[in-house]
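Model the whole thing, not chain by chain.
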Amino acid sequence: MSKNLYRAGLASLAVTLSATPAVAAEATMSGADTAWILTATVLVLFMTLPGLALFYGGLVRANNVLSVLMHCFAIACLASVMWLIGVYALAFGDGGGAQAFIGGAEKWFLLGVGQDTLSGTIPETVFFMFQMTFAIITPALIVGAYVERIKFSAVLLFTGLWLILVYAPVCHWVWGGGWLGEMGVMDFAGGIVVHVTAGTSAVVLAKVLGGRRGFPGELRPPHSPGLTMIGASMLWVGWFGFNAGSALAADGAAGMAMTATHISAAAASLTWAVLEYIRFGKASLVGIVTGMVAGLATITPASGFVGPIGALFIGIAAGVVCQYAVDMVKQTLKIDDSLDVFAVHGVGGALGTLLAAFFGATALGGMGLAEGTGMGGQFVTQVIGVVAGLVWSALLTLLIIKVVQATVGLRIDTEDEIVGLDLVSHGERGYDL
Amino acid sequence: MKMIMAVVKPHRMDQVRDALTAIGVHGLTATEVKGYGRQGGHTEIYRGAEYQINFVPKMKLEVAVSDDLAERVVEAIREAANSGQIGDGKIFVYDLGSALRIRTGESDNEAL
């Protein structure tokens, strides 16, 4: 930075400081905050396209790789259009008398929101776009539950209804001024809103849909762990936008959230790999990157509330708990939640939400709980948040499945499953085999 | 003339080629194949779940040679492909009816 610029920076800082009391009275746009959230929005979209798509794509058979990429891409498009039409209004618009449960009394098609409309210190269009990328990745996470056997029409119908009936209300409860937020639930970047909802709906849908042909004994292994690693790495980078962006400001909270996010991801990856080595004698690439996703999902609700040491513990917990959760779902419950959405995201998101009550406290290096709230009290609030997200997601997902079954149908037939969704649903093939 | 067909471990291909070149074999055809024999398959573990891999990747070689060279070719492949482990592969020898070089029209031993 040149000396002149530096001086100019100091001068404007002085003006800002002296003007602070007046500024507090009316909201003004912050260029710094806006620039960061614009950037964070790009990062979170990149998590889905192509991060999550590649992560999932590498884990399926070679004759289904395109269908997984297609699911993620189509969901991104559908969620975007629906977000504009009314899902944003339901999640973040004022709800009038029903405000505790759902929004929706304003902002359909972003009507009334112009270039100069602010949301905090950033333009509302930027807030709208940032939150849209969350509404994109959340139903895309559920793709992992139904790969290799679902009808494409069912993917679209399920996703559309799910955004309205599960995502919009739960997002409103926690972040849109609804009852969970009012109660003091701590969910910094979406442990409940994103990971518990997606994870729960995934396992319910997988149970009703039934396993892939050959599950559990005679499945084909992931066709491209390398692709999975590339996608996972994009998720890791994009997650900085997800968590540090959720500070909705370019400030110290964002910096601390980014630090916690990174440490948790690294610790969970190592923990997963070490545990795998102890259990099976080899540490695998698919394992270490799965640990990374578990660490990131688990730190998500806690990221803005905990310190780096708290994040380290949360990451280690994620690497152990989520790994055993995979065994529980697949081997004990025998549910083919194919790419372990519930074990990694649902369990991780819930675990992180609960742990935030402890590691968020100043005594354990956190940023501090709400005044007058102890760890025990906050823990109860967190449990209520997780249970509410879980129960609502499960019940409404069952309802949505009934609608899908009664209309377009859920599952392709066995012959088509052998051929693979790439050819059957999309008329294309990923590789010339 | 003989057609010698061998199934060997993929990572032994370079040694096999060198050994055949050393005894004057000037060409062969190689194909990536999968199969099973005494080696059976193996298991791979992803996220704690075991996957049984029933077909093992191998390379299949086809070499057409004159009768007098056949025995040395078999021996050369055997030495080059032998690691002493289960799964080293097998060598088969067929009688070959005729051969023709497309460009020149040369036939049989002239064409090899």
